[in-house]
Amino acid sequence: MEQIRDLLDLENSMTQLNKASSYEPTMITVTAASEVYYLIDKASNNRVVSDNSFNERSSRSHSIFQLLVTSKHTQKNISLEGAINLIDLAGSERLHKSGSKSKQILIESRSINKSLSCLKDVIKSLANNDSHIPYRNSKLTYVLQPHLSSKSSKVLMMVNASPLTCHIPETVNSLRFASEVNS
Question: Which CATH superfamily groups domain 14-182?
Answer without folding.
Answer: Kinesin motor domain (3.40.850.10)
